[in-house]
TrEMBL record:
Residues 56-147, 148-299 form the Cadherin domain. It comes from the Eukaryota. PANTHER family: CADHERIN-87A (PTHR24028), PROTOCADHERIN-7 (PTHR24028:SF253). GO terms for biological process: homophilic cell adhesion via plasma membrane adhesion molecules. GO terms for cellular component: plasma membrane. It is a single-pass membrane protein. Keywords: Calcium, Cell adhesion, Glycoprotein, Membrane, Repeat, Signal, Transmembrane, Transmembrane helix. This is Cadherin domain-containing protein. Residues 187-227 are annotated as: Disordered. The lineage of its organism: Eukaryota, Metazoa, Chordata, Craniata, Vertebrata.
Length: 336
């Protein structure tokens, strides 16, 4: 009985060897390499029928006789294969890397991919083998970095010392790597002085105008000089690299701020990515200068004189005192 089993095993082994030897050499080689994963690379957003690669060629299978055919078992949403030639290409469905569920929050170029499986079917379906493949989706610069709002508002106290730093809102870019955000730029103030000169306080426009004339003789010239000084930039931009690899724009005070001379600055903040060509967008950066109690209220005159009749009745007006304070709101003069 043992001799009989040994003989049958020998015959079975010989039959298997003979079957392999009868296969065409390239096909026999492909079966030996069946565990190898097929890998391809493809840029996103391409049109339909873009050639990705040739499965038959990469497996070492000679085609043309029609004896060996190919069938895509998975991945057919975005990929298709020629049954006779093994040519792998894209379907009409557009591949947007940023919208692929498996690629959300993926910032490594080699980690966004489409997996597929392809069956290789032998002559007369005498055998079938399954191969796995992966198409790495390459990012292109198809998204523009944008700020969270077209107008960004920052509030700064007028007594902030030079060197004070303020964090600015960051832009977002759905692309990454070299196509992601590369730099921020602070542009010159648009439209002339790029800000609003300080108006009057709580006492009303005419009273404020009168008080300024009283406080600053020759006020017109002095106001022009102050405006010219205010138009020079008192802010600069600094960009810091965060621990997670992002860029954080920061606004730094580099000049004296005086709300009584100027209560706002309107700048432009631009963000650019590193694509070729680069994409960019801008937002208005509106810096509002808030008041601090840095001015004392002043009377218009240092000495007031009035004549009063000796028989004047109680409550008779004697004279009117007028004071002004360049500060505003609760910091402005008020009646006791």
């Amino acid at each position: 009985m043992r001799k009989m089993r040994t003989l049958l095993g020998f015959v079975h082994c010989c039959c298997c060897c003979c079957f392999l030897l009868l296969l065409p050499p390239p096909l026999w080689v492909s079966l030996a390499a069946a565990k190898q994963l097929l890998r391809y690379r493809l840029a996103e957003e391409g049109p339909a029928d873009i050639r990705i690669g040739n499965v038959a060629s990469d497996l070492g299978i000679v085609t043309g006789s029609g004896e060996v055919t190919f069938s895509l078992e998975s991945g057919s949403d975005y990929l298709k294969i020629d049954n006779m030639t093994g040519e792998l290409s894209t379907t009409e469905r557009r591949i947007d890397r940023e919208k692929l569920p498996q690629c959300q929050m993926i910032f490594d170029e080699n980690e966004c991919f489409l997996d597929f499986e392809v069956s290789v079917i032998g002559p007369s379906q005498s055998w079938v083998d399954l191969f796995e493949g992966r198409v790495i989706i390459l990012d292109i610069n198809d998204n523009t970095p944008t700020f969270p709002s077209p107008v960004l508002t920052l509030t700064v106290e007028e007594n902030r010392p030079v060197g004070t730093l303020y964090l600015l809102p960051t832009a977002t870019d759905r692309d990454f790597g070299r196509n992601g955000i590369e730099r921020y730029e602070l542009l010159q103030e648009p439209g002339g002085d790029g800000g609003r000169r300080s108006g009057g306080g709580a006492g009303g426009g005419s009273a404020s105008g009168a008080s300024e004339s009283a406080l600053y003789p020759g006020g017109s010239k002095r106001r022009q000089e102050a405006d010219a000084a205010a138009r020079s930039s008192v802010f600069e931009l600094q960009v810091a690299d965060t621990l997670d690899g992002e860029k954080q724009p920061q606004l730094i005070v580099k000049g004296a701020l005086d709300r009584e001379q100027r209560d706002s600055y309107e700048l432009s903040l631009r963000v650019r990515d590193g694509g070729d060509p680069a994409r960019s967008s801008q937002a208005i950066l509106r810096v509002l200068i808030t008041d601090v109690n840095d001015n004392s209220p002043r009377f218009e005159k240092s000495v007031y004189e009035a004549d009063l009749a000796e028989n004047s009745s109680p409550g008779t007006p004697i004279l009117q005192l007028r004071a002004a304070d360049l500060d505003v709101g609760r910091l402005a003069p008020h009646r006791p």
